[in-house]
Amino acid sequence: MKASPTRAVECYYTVQEVSLLLRFSERWVRERINEGAFGAGVRDINGDLRIPASGINAFLDSKPRFYDPGIKARNLGELRRKIPKQNASNHPERVA
Of 95, 80, 91, 92, which is closest to residue 27 (Cα–Cα)? Predict the structure, then answer.
């Protein structure tokens, strides 16, 4: 039997996951989506927006001095455990 060629699977993130990764509000992420900052790969799946990892990486590469993802996590649960609890007054410009 001949082995079929493998295809890479694109990883997609929800608006909430991207906001946690980039440390900005969901509103800010939605504004960037509307501007097209994450590229044309953004999908609307049953009313939920999904942003491809390649779009996030391209966005980060275009603005390396300002946006730092900082925290590495394999899923939302791990990300939430790594993020310290913060008071909303710590980042008033980032709160929706």
Answer: 95
CB-based contact 19:32 (threshold 8 Å): no
Position 50 scores a pLDDT of 94
Q: Which of 78, 74, 79, 85 is nearest to 22 (CA)?
A: 79
Burial 18-52, CB ≥16 within 10 A → b, else e: bbbbbbbbbebbeebbeeebbeeebeeeeeebbbb
Alpha helix locations (H) across the chain? 15-22, 26-35, 53-62, 76-82
For residue 51, the 8-state DSSP code is E
pTM of the predicted structure, to 2 decimals: 0.59
